[in-house]
Design brief:
about 85% helix, 3 helices, mainly alpha
């Protein structure tokens, strides 16, 4: 096999690997887009319904205490409860952003595997070429 044929084979293999990785990245991108869209719709619907429930419960709570001396305490208790819930939700979002894997973890992992395979092939090629150089006295024809 000539050097040109060998380089052509290596180049075509490299292009095939690269094409597969780009296809994987594209598939993951589409998957993440659909996931984000569906989660956004669910979050929006849940947010609207929960907001309505909170407004109605808050109104009921304030009306219940309106004719008493504790009406300001009731409003303050609602404000504190909502603030604590909001801080808890923000903490939860930050925690998830720090602990969840990156969206393209599979593609990155495949690229690392490819680099490891190419590195081992380079090492094997160097090991195979070294005895050849010794046999010919270091001269190539």
């Amino acid at each position: 096999m000539s050097i040109r044929e060998h380089l052509s084979t290596v180049a075509s293999d490299f292009v095939a690997i690269l094409r597969t990785r780009v296809e994987l990245l594209g598939a993951e991108l589409v998957e993440q887009k659909h996931r984000l869209f569906s989660l956004s719709l669910l979050l929006l619907a849940a947010g609207v319904l929960l907001l309505l429930a909170v407004v109605l419960v808050s109104f009921l709570f304030v009306v219940f205490f309106w004719n008493t001396d504790y009406r300001l305490w009731a409003i303050a208790a609602l404000a504190i409860a909502y603030a604590l819930i909001g801080v808890g939700l923000i903490w939860r979002v930050c925690h998830r952003l720090k602990t969840e894997p990156s969206p393209f973890a599979a593609s990155i992992e495949e690229f690392h595997r490819d680099l490891a395979v190419l590195g081992s092939l380079r090492t094997q090629s160097a090991a195979v070429d070294a005895p050849t150089d010794q046999k010919t006295g270091g001269h190539h024809e």
